[in-house]
Design goal:
Elements (H helix, E strand, L loop, with lengths): L2 H11 L4 H33 L1 H18 L4 H23 L5 H11 L1
Length: about 110
């Protein structure tokens, strides 16, 4: 081996800490940022609020409020039915007058009837 080959080998064989700098300062910060934003904020935050916890809280609050309407008197139920019938009739006629979109009527009929 020549002297120049030995010097090149010694120079390239040393650890110059490029990988350490790359991993510690660049990659770890990118991974930490991705963890904070995508996992904590979006997945554990928004998706859980809109997803399972939000739906269960919504169902619980609607059921709790509907439980207050339950009185056991038949005339209360008749008034509720009359109000709902008036609402449906007004909604259908307003759709026919093009105040609402027809797709909104289909959505309403799908979920509430």
């Amino acid at each position: 081996m020549t002297l120049i080959g030995n010097l090149i080998y010694s120079f390239l064989n040393k650890k110059w800490w490029f990988d350490k700098f790359y991993n510690e300062f660049l990659i770890q910060n990118i991974i930490s940022f991705g963890y904070q934003v995508s996992y904590k904020s979006i997945d554990r935050g928004v998706i859980e609020i809109l997803g399972p916890y939000g739906i269960s809280n919504l169902v619980f609050s609607v059921a709790f409020n509907l439980n207050k309407l339950h009185t056991g008197y038949i005339y209360h139920y008749a008034i509720y039915m009359i109000f709902n019938l008036i609402f449906i009739v007004v909604f259908i006629f307003s759709v026919q007058l093009f105040i609402f979109d027809v797709r909104l009527l289909m959505l309403f009929l799908t979920f509430f009837i």
